[in-house]
């Protein structure tokens, strides 16, 4: 269902020099973003030569070593697979049947399936499994001698999000590019101009850029760049001069990958939702599953198995599924699952959650569940990963590569997929009123905007982090979904700042934890769940009575919380089921800024690795 999202890399060149060296160099500068295949297309004076291969960029360089294409215009792409496994034929660039049109694309063409079926019926042939190839074939179908006009026709037909660069053998003196919801930048050179999905690709050539906005289209030649709005009207675009160094540019100007990835979350969530909300606007669809009500009836028990942050996402998912479907759910730490002789059979569904899709313990649990006859479903971020291949079905989070060891956007997108899954299952079983499901879907659709709003003002979090960074013990408390979020907040703080942090179900304080609370101990209290709100306030009073310093996390319409806490952090008001997506973000930021204050290596904390491939 999905296309190739913005974590892929795009480069383009048109000028007086050979395009190939820049294309390869530009792609190499985007390698940090993660990818599984690479390719370039160059107009050699007679035709467009396309060279691409699965695997690392080095494999493409070796392929071109003795016979690189030569020409003054070209495009390149590194792909992070999201639809169709990594392979030569699924790699970009993609071309039309006649080879006259070339496209590179980050994003998703949501209506590609119906467009592809129509094109197939008209005799067009496809060589890949991707949605992008549809765009190239549409260019051939609608071309009448005007390249820009044809681009506009195609843009009017396709639906989704994208950054696109078009190249044609009919008009090889220009590249045309456009964007919607995915970044695209144009570098301004001398007798040459450059296109890229991110600034690091062009920073060695120029610091003068145009940053395209949604709906803008640029016609790029070696001597000029003309930018038009969606109505075809010319725009007097203001230059943006890059002042970052190359290393900072890789992080989009942020100091660390972790903070960049925290700010990536509105887009990561938007990408994860793309194509999964029905055309009616209030239902969930999963073409990857296509379950029936009868198949849903056969599932008597569900297991969610994962490690670390993914396990915390699974705890949230357990709540979603049980509340909306009334099917019992167990959450298991993957390293424990197969050693406790789990009672699993053919009426069980095992859901494994893993960012990398390579987590050894999770993979072993998956294999054990299959051996015992369970149905299996993977939720992962990496297409064609070991876990995705092993599971009966797979749902992808489309967060894009996550570079920092501490997971942020992977966690929020895992929660979103689990909530979408719970709604989808409830639609099939009829276990929750349709009106209630529509309310949840309406809030799901608002999440990218709400996260963006939350990230607009993080200064209070910075202040709290600096104020309490010297603490050696921090406690997190919450109830229901807030408790699951507290566990993730605690993990984030301890793994990157090395502060000892513990999370407790707030109602457990009186059963021993209060003995650890002394004057000045920081306590982060989450209070977003209406059913237990008054109980949570009572628990906050308990720690305040021991002179704890309390930071409360509450919804923005909460008029009471400030009476009970030393500091209050507000998240945008939302449905209780979506509160974990928003409430975790201040905790991510708190961990980040505390680690910064303590001089820790934020992206590479000691003794930890991104993907755990040994038991």
General description of the model:
With 615 residues, the chain is α/β, with parallel strands linked by helices. It folds into three domains: 9-250, 4-Layer Sandwich (Glutamine Phosphoribosylpyrophosphate, subunit 1, domain 1), CATH 3.60.20; 260-454, Glucose-6-phosphate isomerase like protein, domain 1 (Rossmann fold), CATH 3.40.50.10490; 459-597, 3-Layer(aba) Sandwich (Rossmann fold), CATH 3.40.50.10490. It is built from 19 helices and 24 strands. Helix 4 packs across helix 5, helix 10 (308-325) runs antiparallel to helix 17 and helix 17 (481-497) runs parallel beside helix 19 (579-597). The protein is globular, with a radius of gyration of 25 Å.
Give the secondary structure arrangement, pairings included.
Elements: E1 9-15, H1 19-28, E2 37-43, E3 48-54, H2 57-64, E4 73-79, E5 94-95, E6 101-109, H3 112-121, H4 132-142, H5 147-157, E7 160-168, E8 175-180, E9 185-188, E10 192-196, E11 208-211, E12 217-220, E13 225-228, E14 240-241, H6 246-250, H7 257-263, H8 265-273, H9 293-297, E15 301-306, H10 308-325, E16 329-333, H11 334-337, E17 348-354, H12 360-371, E18 375-380, H13 386-390, E19 393-396, H14 409-429, H15 434-454, H16 459-468, E20 473-478, H17 481-497, E21 500-505, E22 522-527, H18 533-544, E23 549-555, E24 567-571, H19 579-597
Parallel strand pairs: 15-16, 15-17, 17-18, 18-19, 20-21, 20-22, 22-23, 23-24
Antiparallel strand pairs: 1-4, 1-10, 2-3, 2-4, 5-6, 6-7, 7-8, 8-12, 9-10, 9-11, 11-14, 12-13
Helix pairs in contact: 3-4, 4-5, 8-14, 8-15, 10-14, 10-17, 14-15, 16-19, 17-19
């Amino acid at each position: 269902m999905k296309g190739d999202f913005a974590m892929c890399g795009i480069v383009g060149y048109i000028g007086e020099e050979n395009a190939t060296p820049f294309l390869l160099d530009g792609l190499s500068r985007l390698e940090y973003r993660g990818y599984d295949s690479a390719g370039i297309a160059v107009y050699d004076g007679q035709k467009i030569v396309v060279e691409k291969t699965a695997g690392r960029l080095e494999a493409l360089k070796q392929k071109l070593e003795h016979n690189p294409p030569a020409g003054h215009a070209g495009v390149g792409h590194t792909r992070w697979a999201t639809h169709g496994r990594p392979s030569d034929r699924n790699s970009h660039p993609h071309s039309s049947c006649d080879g006259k049109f070339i496209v590179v694309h980050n994003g998703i063409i949501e209506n590609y399936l119906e467009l592809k079926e129509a094109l197939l019926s008209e005799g067009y042939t496809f060589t890949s499994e991707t949605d992008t190839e549809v765009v190239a074939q549409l260019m051939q179908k609608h071309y009448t001698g005007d390249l820009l006009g044809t681009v506009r026709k195609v843009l009017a037909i396709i639906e989704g999000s994208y950054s696109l660069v078009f190249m044609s053998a009919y008009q090889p003196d220009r590249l045309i590019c456009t964007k919607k919801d995915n970044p695209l930048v144009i570098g301004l050179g001398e007798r040459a101009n450059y296109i890229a999905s991110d600034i690091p690709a062009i920073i060695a050539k120029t610091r003068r850029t145009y940053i395209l906005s949604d709906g803008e289209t640029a016609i790029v030649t070696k001597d000029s760049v003309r930018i038009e709005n969606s109505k075809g009207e010319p725009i007097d675009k203001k230059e943006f001069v890059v002042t970052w160094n190359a290393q900072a540019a890789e992080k989009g100007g942020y100091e660390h990958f972790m903070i960049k990835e925290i700010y990536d979350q509105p887009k990561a969530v938007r990408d994860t939702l793309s194509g999964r909300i029905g055309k009616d606007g209030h239902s969930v669809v999963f073409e990857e599953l296509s379950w029936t009500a009868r198949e849903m009836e056969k599932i008597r028990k569900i297991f969610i198995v994962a490690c670390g942050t993914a396990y915390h996402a699974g705890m949230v998912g357990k709540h979603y599924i049980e509340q909306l479907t009334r099917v019992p759910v167990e959450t298991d730490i993957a390293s424990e699952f197969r050693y406790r002789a789990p009672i699993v059979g053919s009426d069980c569904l095992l859901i494994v959650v893993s960012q990398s899709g390579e987590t050894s313990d999770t993979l072993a649990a998956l294999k054990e569940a299959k051996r015992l006859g369970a149905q299996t479903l993977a939720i992962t971020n990496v297409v064609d990963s070991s876990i995705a291949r092993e599971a009966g079905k797979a749902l992808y989070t489309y967060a894009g590569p996550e570079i920092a060891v501490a997971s942020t956007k992977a966690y929020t997108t895992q929660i979103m997929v689990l909530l979408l899954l719970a709604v989808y299952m409830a639609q099939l079983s009829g276990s929750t009123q349709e009106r209630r499901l529509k309310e949840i879907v309406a809030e799901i659709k608002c999440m990218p905007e709400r996260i963006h709003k939350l990230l607009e003002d993080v200064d209070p979090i910075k202040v709290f982090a600096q104020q309490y960074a010297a603490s050696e013990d921090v406690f997190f408390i919450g109830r229901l979904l807030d408790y699951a979020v507290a566990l993730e907040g605690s993990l984030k703080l301890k793994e990157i700042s090395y502060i000892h942090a513990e999370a407790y179900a707030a109602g457990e304080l009186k059963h021993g934890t209060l003995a650890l609370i002394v004057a000045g101990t920081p306590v982060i209290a989450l209070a977003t769940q209406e059913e237990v709100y008054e109980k949570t306030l009572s628990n906050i009073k308990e720690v305040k009575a021991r002179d704890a310093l309390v930071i409360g996390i509450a919804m923005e319409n909460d008029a009471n919380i400030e009476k009970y806490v030393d500091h209050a952090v507000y998240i945008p008001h939302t449905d209780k089921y979506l509160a974990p997506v928003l409430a975790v973000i201040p905790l991510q930021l708190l961990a980040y800024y505390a680690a910064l204050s303590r001089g820790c290596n934020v992206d590479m904390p000691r003794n930890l690795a991104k993907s755990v491939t040994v038991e």
